[in-house]
């Protein structure tokens, strides 16, 4: 396993390998962040799986989705999405309501309790992350912020592709 320590063992011997070395170091950091994120979420009053949290997040950002669209957004099968929603509904986090214009379609909406649970998870995660950031030097936090902005901009450029990049 590589580390962000910058030790000699992390250095690549072939020109052009620098991006791969950095990618491996970032992968280690992401693993650590994922653990921090998961542990913080599990400390909430209501423990939810990452899958359940993801479904709630999607429905929070797009209230009223139907089951098919939720399944597609999560890249899971329709039966799996249906069982997931059954569990979330049984926990009082989600409600199914008939679509006002389409009689055969059911919309999925978060309940007030569902929104509260998401707020609690967000708060716990933010507190855990803030504790780690507070342990860093100010210049390290600033460098991390700049690096993350650059990373996100580069990712956006790759995701959008060359045709869409020139239109912005």
Q: Largest sheet, order of strands side by side?
A: 1-2
Beta-strand content bin: 5-15%
Mean pLDDT: 86
SSE order, one letter for each helix or strand? HHHHEEHH
Strand count: 2
CATH structural architecture of the largest domain? Orthogonal Bundle
- Briefly note the structural class of the backbone: mainly alpha
Identify the overall geometry: globular
What is the number of helical segments per DSSP (H or I, 4+ residues)?
6
CATH class of the largest domain: Mainly Alpha
Radius of gyration (CA) equals 21 Å
How many domain modules? 2
The oligomeric status of these chains comes to single chain
Which ranges are low-confidence, i.e. pLDDT below 50, for 5 or more consecutive residues?
7-12
Share of helical residues: 55-70%
What is the third-level CATH name, the topology of the largest domain?
Arc Repressor Mutant, subunit A
**N→C terminal distance:** 39 Å
Per CATH, the superfamily of the largest domain is Winged helix-like DNA-binding domain superfamily/Winged helix DNA-binding domain
Main sheet summary: 2 strands, antiparallel
